[in-house]
């Protein structure tokens, strides 16, 4: 196996300026990707026994890869591979080369641990800075960072990116919403970084204090870490008087900043192809799908040292487009992630994502944009109940709660095609998000 595996890939393209790299013609990007891919595969093979066994079993040899097309012969990597090799078994760098660990909370069993060398942190900061710049953040801006700090990658990822861009970071983390509102005002933040559901919570708390949120200097929201709909975007834009931009990422691949919308188009997130290779596969057959087709997003890292990921199955459902973007960036666009395939609900034979329910509810007259989906067992079938709040300015009687519920049920049936129960709730009764919103409460009997 290649003795080059220790060395970071050197290419003349690596010395381009940011704008040059972001607008590199696609043929140049493909050349760069193939070169970096060979480096990644060799590094994974040489340093990670798990990859060596998998590659050998699949009879693929990293030094024979000609173009990125050949990657389709390589095995996938799953979250379970990280769990099975807990904590550091998938790392390609020795502990002495690491400078940071993050981990996902892991609802069941062990957390997923991810590691970074100093170089990885350097590139992550650069990509997050690039993402924020694309989103319209500028040097000198005051960035109120309400992503959670700690093992979650959101807080530190956005923090390092904003600092790299030359911003003034306010490291708030999540929670303590009244204090967030006070400091947003006092420090005159230009940018709000948070999950979209937490931004909504902040707006609501500010409004309850009689603050005109639209009059605050905040002009951009850099929102991500959970699925959200265009309807929620419109709600946030108008309530906060901002332009909100979608940022995507996941710990296993890096953290926030794997892809970000540009504020020119706000129509799909530019996936940074000089550092990642994006594929869409059919989650059932695992076959690659063509550009434009909807399926599961699979990502291969191209420059990660500590934790190279080869064909990582994100479970996120989306599609890609390589059509030119109005901003001039050439990097592929990942369309809004509608949800994860493991979040997909199958209700009486109809596939439903929570974000589709959100798209129906948000903006419907008389409703507040707060909702939760409850799943119960109805005999052998799954039953879905949508709990939604009515708007605070409605005269709330039991009668109009019931009428509202029927109306919403009808809308969901006609827009998504699924029959469900709806409970319209009084204002302020549903839980408010402090980070990633819990959209589905599963009370089904386990077999
Ligand atoms: O959520 C990283 C992140 C932090 C992204 C801050 C953006 C902003 P994880 O906790 O590992 O990492 O969760 C990753 O969250 O696979 C998606 O299912 C979901 N996700 C992240 N961004 C978006 C988005 C961070 N913009 C998982 N739209 C991913 C929809 C998103 N889903």
SSE topology sketch:
Elements: H1 18-22, H2 26-47, H3 49-57, H4 79-84, E1 98-104, E2 112-117, H5 118-134, E3 142-145, H6 153-165, E4 168-171, H7 177-186, E5 191-194, H8 196-208, E6 220-224, H9 230-240, E7 243-250, E8 255-261, E9 269-271, E10 276-281, E11 295-301, E12 312-318, E13 320-321, E14 333-334, E15 339-340, E16 345-347, E17 350-352, H10 354-361, E18 367-378, E19 381-390, H11 398-416, E20 421-425, E21 440-442
The structure holds 5'-O-[hydroxy(phenylacetyl)phosphoryl]adenosine.
Residues 104, 147, 152-154, 157, 224-227, 246-251, 255-256, 314, 316, 337, 340 line the site of 5'-O-[hydroxy(phenylacetyl)phosphoryl]adenosine.
Largest sheet: 9 strands, mixed
Number of helices: 11
CATH architecture of the largest domain: 3-Layer(aba) Sandwich
CATH class of the largest domain: Alpha Beta
Question: How would you explain this protein's 3D organization?
Answer:
Helices cover 30% and strands 25% of the residues. By secondary structure, it is of the alpha/beta class. The strands form 5 sheets. The chain has a 9-stranded mixed β-sheet. A 4-stranded antiparallel β-sheet has the order 10-11-12-15. Strand 7 and strand 8 form a beta hairpin. The protein starts with 17 loop residues before the first helix and ends in a 5-residue tail after the last strand. 5'-O-[hydroxy(phenylacetyl)phosphoryl]adenosine is lined by residues 104, 147, 152-154, 157, 224-227, 246-251, 255-256, 314, 316, 337, 340.
């Amino acid at each position: 196996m290649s003795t080059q595996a220790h060395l970071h890939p050197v290419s003349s393209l690596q010395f381009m300026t940011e704008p040059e790299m972001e607008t590199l013609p696609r043929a140049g990007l493909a050349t760069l990707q193939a070169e970096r891919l060979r480096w990644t595969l060799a590094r994974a093979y040489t340093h990670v026994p798990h990859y060596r066994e998998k590659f050998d079993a699949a009879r693929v040899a990293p030094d024979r890869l000609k173009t990125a097309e050949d990657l389709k012969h390589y095995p996938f990597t799953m979250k379970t591979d990280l769990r099975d090799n807990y904590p550091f078994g998938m790392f390609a760098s020795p502990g002495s080369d690491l400078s940071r660990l993050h981990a996902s909370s892991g609802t069941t069993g062990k957390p997923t641990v991810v590691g970074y060398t100093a170089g990885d942190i350097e590139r992550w900061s650069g990509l997050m800075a690039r993402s924020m710049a694309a989103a319209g953040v500028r040097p000198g801006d005051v960035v109120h960072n309400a992503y959670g700090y700690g093992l979650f990658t959101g807080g530190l990822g956005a923090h390092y990116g904003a600092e790299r861009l030359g911003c003034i970071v306010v490291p708030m983390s999540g929670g303590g919403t009244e204090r967030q509102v006070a400091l947003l005002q006092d420090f005159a933040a230009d940018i709000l970084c948070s999950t979209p559901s937490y931004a909504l919570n902040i707006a609501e708390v500010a409004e309850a204090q009689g603050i005109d949120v639209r009059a605050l200097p905040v002009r951009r929201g850099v929102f991500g870490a959970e699925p959200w709909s265009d309807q929620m975007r419109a709600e946030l834009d108008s309530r906060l008087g901002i332009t909100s931009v979608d940022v995507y990422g996941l710990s296993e691949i890096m953290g926030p900043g794997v892809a970000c919308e540009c504020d020119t188009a706000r129509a799909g997130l530019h996936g940074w192809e000089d550092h990642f290779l994006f594929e869409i596969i059919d989650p059932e057959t695992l076959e690659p799908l063509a550009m434009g087709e909807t399926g599961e997003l699979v990502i291969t890292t191209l420059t990660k040292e500590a934790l190279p990921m080869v064909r990582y199955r994100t479970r996120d459902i989306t599609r890609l487009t390589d059509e030119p973007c109005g901003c001039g960036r050439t990097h592929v666009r990942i369309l809004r992630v509608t949800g994860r395939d493991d979040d997909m609900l199958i209700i009486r034979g109809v596939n439903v994502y929570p974000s589709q329910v959100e798209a129906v509810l948000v903006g419907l007259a008389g409703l507040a944009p707060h909702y939760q989906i409850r799943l119960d067992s109805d005999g052998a079938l799954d039953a879905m109940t949508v709990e939604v709040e009515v708007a605070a300015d409605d005269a709330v009687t039991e009668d109009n709660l019931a009428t509202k519920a029927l109306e919403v049920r009808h809308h969901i049936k006609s827009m998504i095609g699924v029959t469900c129960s709806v409970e319209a709730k009084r204002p302020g009764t549903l839980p408010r998000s402090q980070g990633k919103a819990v959209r589905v409460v599963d009370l089904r009997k386990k077999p």
